Every structure is written in C-alpha cells, then in structure tokens.
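## retry 2 of 3
previous attempt timed out at serialization; input unchanged, resubmitting
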Amino acid sequence: MKIKILGCFGAEMPGYRTTCFKIDDSTLVDAGAITSVLDHHEQIGIRNILVTHAHLDHVKDIPLLADNVIGNISQPVNIISSAEVIAALKEHLLNDKIWPDFTKIPTMENPVLRYREIELETPFKVNNLTVTAVRVNHTVPAVGYIISDDENSFAISGDTASTGRFWELTNETDRIKAVFVETSFPNSMNELAIMSGHLTPEMMNEELKKLNSNDIPIYLYHLKPKFMDVLRDEIASIDDFDISILEQDKTY
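## retry succeeded, writing output
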C-alpha cells in the first residue's frame, strides 16, 4: 500500500493544501486537494473517495473532479461515507444550487458520482482494501478510518477532539504500521480547539496514551499553516512517541 499526501493542512494558503490522501492509484481519503494536484489522466483514474466528514476543506474538490471527468469515465466515482455525511453532501453541496447534482448527470442510470453509504464499525471492501469507519468526536458527524491491505494496516483519525472508540479499534487491528492524527491548534488555543472539535499537541499527546504501544509511527496532519512554527516546536517537545509531521507531496 502506497499513500501519497496530496494535501495535509488545516487551512489553505500558497504552498499549503487541505486534506487529501491518495492510496495507490484510485482511492482517496478526503477531497481537499484533487484537481489542483492531479493531472487529467490521474483524475480519471480516481474511483473511490472515502470522506471523513462534510466540512468544506475535506470535500471541496468533489464537485470540481466531477466536472473534469464527465465524459471520460465509464463507471461512477464512489463517494463513500456514513449516512449522515452523505446526507450533508446531498443537502448542502451537490444540490443543484451550490453545484449541479452529478449523481444524476449525465443520466440517473450512469452518473458521474455515486453515493455509497457504509455502516460504522462494519468492515467493507474498496478494491483490495478492507476499510472500517469509526465515529470520532467533531462538531459535525465525522469518522476516522482503519484501512488494511494483505500486508499492512494504518489508521486515520479524521478531524477530532478527544475520542475513544477510534483508539480501541486501532488497538484491536493487526499489523498497524502508522496512525495519522490531526493536530490543528497550538497549546495556547486549547479552548478554541475544544470548541471546534480539534486537538492541540498537548491534547494529541494525551490521545496517544490510549494506544497499547508507543512504538507505532505517528504522523500528524491538519496543522494550521499560520501556526506552523509554534506547532513544530510544541510537537518537538513530545518525546514519548515516534512522531513526525506529514509532508505534502511525499509518498509513504
């Protein structure tokens, strides 16, 4: 399994793109940086998008991808998430007001996009991957994902404040090679982090103590670009775990 980091930040500025991870060639986790990064041929190859939640920085390129690939694909792109997340996309994004409903275009029988609702904590297949969605603690319905192939597994927290079940399922998963964990605000903004459903480095450190092992590589993402210097310093002061910050454009 190869994971390319198309975007990994908690806001967008020149040089900083929002969350989007490409697994192998055809599956994405979140859609914050598709059309600004992938060329047309690569966009046509996208078959599945696992969405953690419906906030704009995680879904904004779904409409633009649909516009780019219409007429070039023979099967719909699967938009995969919980029923609540998909309901939000239907009502607020692909609603024929903000953007055309590409789940009906060009025809109902063969649209560009197709919703796929999944049950929480019930493993499902996406190509050669086995995926489990688990509820996390954000301001809107949100999930993290545990993703496995025949050799390895990794977990993605999605946007979350302090949460529980995500760590329990991660501990129960064999062959966990990495955990991607959001860390958005510096420690001085603890109250804002709690209000907005995010983590600070101190809060993230407490979350990692819920893991059964402190040897699992931890990769942090969703850092707010304007706080990068202080976040790097605060993260560097944590030495109980194997922590790195995800690097945009890098393949892991």
